Amino acid sequence: MLTICFVELGLVEDIDLVEVCRIINRSQRAIRAIVGPEVTALGEPDISAIGYSLPRLFAVLAATAEPEQVMVGITRAPIERNLFGSHVSPGLIILSLHQVQEVCVSSGRTTEEYLAQSAITELLQLLYVSSSPDALWTDLAHDEVRGCLFDYVPNKIDKAVKLRCGHLDQQCRARLIESGVAADLLVAADKLLRRIQSPTLGRTLRQALQQPVFSLLLGGVLGGLIINLVSSAITDSFTSRSASATAVAALMALGVITFPWLRARRSARKLRRWPASATTEPSAISRLGGMN
Ligand SMILES: [Zn+2]
User: Fold this and answer.
1) Which domain holds residue 17?
2) How far is the CA of 259 from the centre of ligand 1 (A)?
């Protein structure tokens, strides 16, 4: 089993690295994620690592390295050319949280889910470049839009699409396997993506409640249910007829609450089937191009 160790570099507030590890560890069995030491002081001035170069961050991360672990340093600082992340063979990864909040809001995913997916993406690139002295991470990145984790994206906000429905396309999967990346790691990546992309009841309900029509509908059904219960209690007339009305209202409320979730699950299943057979891009995949 491959172990990746998350390390905070500088001031990284409001990020739950234990939750990042939980997301990774519960979704698959080939990669074990753990939380390492915090490196709160990066020298003078210690201002969230801003002003520190990528080589400096890698040097600090290397000092925390444990044998046979891939170290993943998390920083709020923008890193070279405002990259999402960077890596150095054999086992160092830096992930930047700069401008990530917008990506998470746009995708409806948490920062912890963003970090879990980004860590695995960088890990696959790291394993690829470690396979041969001639291998470059740019070998994996491609301009062609395939809905793949390795599509170039010109703006950070475009990564929201990858969080919602990114996958490993057949070409990149084959290239990784040819380079010697273990098949179980690719399966682990697939499982993690599925975990992050699967709609949850809470997430879809929160998004649906932002739509006035849905809010009115749910409010009306729940209001009717409450009024029915209260009036029955006040008048002490809880007859079989009022019980039936209450049951119908409760079922309607359940249907309204779960409808967005069931619809989102159906859409997610369609998107998962798309990569193997599609000849055209789904509308959910925007034109990306540019930076990986
Ligand atoms: Zn690809």
Assistant:
1) 2-197
2) 33
Ligand 1 center from residue 290 Cα (angstroms): 14
pLDDT in tens, 35-90: 999 887 776 655 555 557 788 889 889 999 988 999 999 998 888 878 899 999 88
pLDDT bucket at 153, cuts 50 / 70 / 90: confident
Same domain, yes or no: 191 and 252:
no
Is 209 in the same domain as 174?
Answer: no
Question: Domain check: are 232 and 177 in the same one?
Answer: no
8 plus 118 within the same structural domain: yes
**Which residues are found with C-beta within 5 Å of the ion, ligand 1?**
148, 150, 169, 172
Measured over the CA atoms of residue 6, residue 12, residue 17 and residue 20, the dihedral's sign is: negative
Q: pLDDT tens digits for 96-108?
A: 999 999 999 888 8
Between CA 122 and CA 84 the distance in angstroms is: 9
